[in-house]
C-alpha cells in the first residue's frame, strides 16, 4: 500500500518543497522532446498553480537530498501530470494534453519514484506538464501539493483507525435507533438514526482519498458529497433538538435551517462550505436547547452544554473539526442519546403502567408525568390533546398546558367517550366544542377557549356524526 500513505502528515513533517531556492514556481512555454522538455519564456507564478481548462508547463528548483534515503515526487491535485527531473522523465499520471480530447485523466494522487542517479549536487530542475479538462467543478486551489518526499513512509494508521472506529460506532447507533423506531414509532428515534447514518457515510467518504487511488474527475463528486452530508447532518440536528425541546416551533426552525445551511453552497471552497454548514446547524440547534433549559425540560441542559462544546471546537479549530473531531463529536452525541433513549423508554413504560393503575382508581382524573413532576389533572378540564412526537401537549381550561410523557395513540384509548380523534395529531373534548366551520378547503374545530383545531378530511364524517348526537350541542 505504498501508494496510499498519509500524505498530509508527511507534507507537514518531511516535505522538501518544490519551491526551494527562492520558492517560486515558474510557468513556461514548453514542448516535449526525446532529450527532455524544452522550455522558454518562463515567468514566476504569482498565485496558485492552476491547470484547469488548459495545459501548462511549470518548473522549480529543488535541492539534492542530504542523505541517501530514496525519494519520490508526490503530486496531488485535479490534473493529469507528467514529470521530469534534470531532463529525465520520472513518469506520467494519465496523459496531459492541450485539449479535452487529447487528455487522459489521471489519478488525484500520484507518486513518481526518483532514481538516485538522476540527482545532481546542489540545484536540480523539476519540470511538470499539467492539464485539467475533466475536473467538473472549478476549484480555487486545484493542486493540493507537489513535493519531494523520503520513502518509505513511517506508519501513521492512528487517524484512519479513529475514523473507522467512529464510523463503526455511528453505524451501531443508527441500527439501535432504527430498532427503537420499529418498536415505538417515535419521530426522534428516526431522526437520530438518520443522523448517525449520515455521519457514518461522511466518515466513509472522507476516508476515500486515503483508501482508494481514484481518478481526479471524481474528486469534485467526493467534495460535493462531503458538503451535502454535512448539511444534511446539520439540518437533522436542528430538527431533533427542536422536536425534543421546542416542538411547537420545529417546523419554522427546521425550515429556517434548511435555507441558512443551504446558503453555504454559495461560499467559496468546499472546506469552508462544510465547516459553516456544521457551525450554522449547531448554532441553530442550540436555540431550542436553550429554550428547553429555560423551561427546565429533562435533558435540555446537557444537550445545550454539548452543543456549546461542539460549537466552540468548530470555531476554534475548524480544520481539525472537519477532518476528525466532527466524527468523534457526532459519535459522542448520538451514543449517549441512544443510552438515554433506551433508559427513557423503559422508564416511560414503567410510568405508564403506574399511571394506568392510579387512573383505574380515579377514573375522573389523568395522571400526567411532566417536567414539574406527577400531577393529577381532571379529565373535564382537558380541552384537547396535541401530539408532539413521543410527548403530548395537554391543553387545559384557563389557558394552561402540560407536556405529558405519553403517546397520542395510548391516550386515545384511555380518555372517555367524549374525546374524539379529529386529526392524526389532535384529540378534542367534544363537550367543549362551540362550532365546526370551513376555512377555505379545510375545516377547523372551535372550542370554548383557546385556538381552533385542524380537522382532517378522513375524520370529518365521524366528527359530524358525533356532533349531531343529542348529547352535543354545536352551532355549525
From TrEMBL:
Tagged with keyword Ion transport: no
Signal peptide interval:
1-20
Which keywords does this chain's UniProt record carry?
DNA-binding, Membrane, Signal, Transmembrane, Transmembrane helix
Which branch of life, at top level? Bacteria
**Sorted alphabetically, which InterPro entries does this protein's record hold?**
LytR-like (IPR046947), LytTR_DNA-bd_dom (IPR007492)
Give one Pfam family, short name only: LytTR
Q: Which residues cross the membrane?
A: 157-180, 187-205, 225-242, 251-269, 275-294, 303-321, 327-346
Residue intervals of the HTH LytTR-type domain: 366-469
- Molecular function via GO: DNA binding; phosphorelay response regulator activity
Q: Which PANTHER family match?
A: STAGE 0 SPORULATION PROTEIN A HOMOLOG (PTHR37299:SF1), TRANSCRIPTIONAL REGULATOR-RELATED (PTHR37299)
What is the name of this protein?
Answer: DNA-binding LytR/AlgR family response regulator
Organism per entry? Sphingomonas kyeonggiensis
**Organism phylogeny:** Bacteria, Pseudomonadati, Pseudomonadota, Alphaproteobacteria, Sphingomonadales
